[in-house]
Amino acid sequence: MTGGSADTPGGWEGILEPGETVLWQGRPRPGVSFTGFDLRRTLFGLVFLGFALFWVVGAAHATGDAPLPVRILFPAAGFLFVFQGARLAGGDRLWRAWVRRGTWYTLTSQQALIATEVFGRRGLDAWPITGRNAIELVEGSPGSIFFADTGGPFGRGRRIGFERIDDAREVLALMRRVQRGAA
Known about the structure:
Blueprint: E1 22-26, H1 39-62, H2 68-100, E2 103-108, E3 111-118, E4 121-128, E5 136-138, E6 143-149, E7 159-165, H3 168-180
Antiparallel strand pairs: 1-2, 2-3, 3-4, 5-6, 6-7
């Protein structure tokens, strides 16, 4: 995107199109979300993680007299399973909470912007809001609004949206105005 105008707020030069206006800005509520918590998945993840840790420690011990590449590679192969077990046991919720700490949301008259800063690395993703967007409000305190999907195998992509916001209904009304071209 290029452009900007004399009406463009400071810091938005080169990001907003001419005539595009900022309608709303906010941040997600911090903390770990337990929405959609699945006890069976978490328990399976803990068992999986325990077995993976057992594998890594056992492999490191069993390869004590082996050549150096074997002593490194054999236990290291288990770390993929350690990470997967940690993710299933709830590590993904902790990671998303960490990312939300460095997340900012902006809704303009044309698009939704999600800015992130994680470990000093900044990113800005823009998602056009048109009449074709399927917008989903997830009620709650806080609520969430989802307006895009990353796609993915078997139709199971990651939903994109303004997560854990306090004024979800008001932002939904603004998004509907953008969809109608009335914003």
